[in-house]
Amino acid sequence: MRRTPTQLASHVDIAITRGHAWLWNSYIPEPRGGSGAGWPQFPGSTELTVWGGTLDGLRAQNLERRGGPMNERLRDALTWVRKQQLECGGFDSCEVEYPAAETTAWALIAFGEIGLEATDATVGGAITYLLECVAPGGGVTTTPNDLQDQRIMPMALAVWAFAKYREELRRRGKEGVIDSIVQRLRLVQDRESQAWGVSHGAVPNVATTAQVIHALCEAGVPARDDVIQGANKFVIGRQDSNGSWPNSYDEWFTIRSPRRPHRCLNYSSWWALLALMHSVTVDSDTRRACRSAVKYLVETQSPEGAWRFEEYEDTRHVWLTGQIVVALHEWRRNWLNHDQRYRMRSIGDGLAGAAGTLRRNAIAIVLGFLVAKEVLPGALHIIASIGHTLGIDRASMSNNLLSTAIWASLTILLASLITHLRNR
Fold it and tell me: Which comes out higher in pLDDT, residue 34 or 58?
């Protein structure tokens, strides 16, 4: 069912509220033993995790603060995360049992959103470790010892994290690291598809491409940049008719575990929405893709308020629900800032679409005019003769024909406008 932006926003508000409630229901409070409080990967598990659980719960539930003080549950979860920091400054997790650049960058992203300053010891240590994972030339590896395995996801997450603490990098004389990673990501973009795969030379996929789009924009690359616009077209072109994108996986090995792969599930519909929202003011295709994605996410939320990685599975994931709640909050802000001018923008886009249709068919229109110029006098003479036989005044007939032609032209233009608006 087609919804107006106002109706869709109302449904999004309901989805956000239900998502927050489900996340709190999945929260594990501080037990008497004092082992910590936070979130597991999924309800029913009693094992807290940094990446894939508590950090995603913190990011989502922190949005309920709306600038207010942090409640006790959030403070306890943040305290538990702090305690998980290793001596090197990095973070591990239950599914990544070593200090990984990915986990550490995700922690810094959450810390930045929560409002922790760079002077915070936990933040400072994480920045130091993540800088050690940056290879010469701007590549980023999962650990400082894995310099030969430079994948795209750690690059994207690292530059997003560093962008949140740009002033601290400047103070350390390391601000150039952000530009170095950005240039590296530009360099390894697939020239044919204008997208990215999990590593340089790998088959491009939507989730990895969206990760890079979002990271580059967070690092200050304008949404109108050719690299961003080309990647946007790749993402939009692979959106399913229901508004979703196919999910993907990122697998890698480390020197510490050369035979045991580590895996990250990438929910493409979340990443794609997050990436495309940077360009909602640039073109109507992006806005249309975002609205379609939001409708899909709202419609696939479970009755209790969670989301599943695949529609056929039963597991409700904390990390996925937290990420989608964050994205819906962001879309809601975008809608308030931009789509409240929906009607005027729709008319503008419609007129632009109609003008584009006329422009694309300019040759046919000119040829039609020239043919009409040659054929019309003879046709009018025949019509006038028939009219004279029927007793119709020639001047009246000419006026009626002119009036009909004008109304026909306006009708065609209006139909083109309406068709363009319906397809948005």
Answer: 58
C-alpha 336, offset from chain centre = 17
CA distance 257 to 380: 86
Closest to 95 measured CA to CA, from 250, 325, 270, 307? 250
Q: Among candidates 76, 42, 44, 45, which has minimal Cα distance to 58?
A: 76
pLDDT in tens, 299-327: 999 999 999 999 888 889 999 999 999 99
- Alpha-carbon span 305 to 316, nearest angstrom: 9
**352 or 287, which is more confident:** 287
DSSP-H helix ranges across 338-424: 342-360, 362-390, 394-422
* Token pair belonging to 373: 């110029």
Of 49-63, 167-181, 204-218, 335-349, the range with the lowest mean pLDDT is 335-349
Question: CB–CB of 212/153 below 8 Å?
Answer: no
Q: Coil, strand or helix: which one is 263?
A: strand
The C-alpha atoms of residue 31 and residue 78 are separated, in whole angstroms, by 15
| Phi/psi at 345 (5° precision) | -65, -40
Q: Does the pLDDT value for residue 90 go beyond 80?
A: yes
User: Which residue pairs, CB below 8 angstroms and at least 24 apart, start in 277-280?
Assistant: 277/327, 277/330, 277/331, 277/334, 278/213, 278/214, 278/217, 278/223, 278/228, 279/223, 279/228, 279/229, 279/232, 280/334, 280/338, 280/339
Question: Who has greater pLDDT, 236 or 417?
Answer: 236
CA dist 58 → 13, 20, 37, 238 (Å): 19, 11, 11, 31
Structure-block tokens of residue 85: 């920091």
- The model scores a pTM over 0.85: no
Secondary structure, 3-state, 117-141: CCCCHHHHHHHHHHHHCECCCCCEE
Q: Would the CA dihedral through 164, 169, 175, 181 be positive or negative? A: negative
User: What is residue 383's predicted lDDT score, i.e. its pLDDT?
Assistant: 63
Residues 6+ apart with CB under 8 A from 348: none
Q: Residues 29-39, buried b or exposed e (16+ Cβ, 10 A)?
A: ebeeeeebbbb
In percent, the amount of the chain with pLDDT more than 70 equals 78
Give the residue carrying structure tokens 């409640």.
71
Rounded Cα gap, residues 280 and 331, in angstroms: 10
Are 150 and 158 contacting, i.e. CB atoms less than 8 angstroms apart?
A: no
Interatomic CA distance for residues 365 and 350, integer angstroms: 20
Mean pLDDT (the chain) is 86
Q: Which segment of 220-234, 252-266, 320-334, 394-408 scores lowest on mean pLDDT?
A: 394-408
User: Which residue from 121, 123, 125 is spatially nearest to 87, judged by alpha carbons?
Assistant: 125
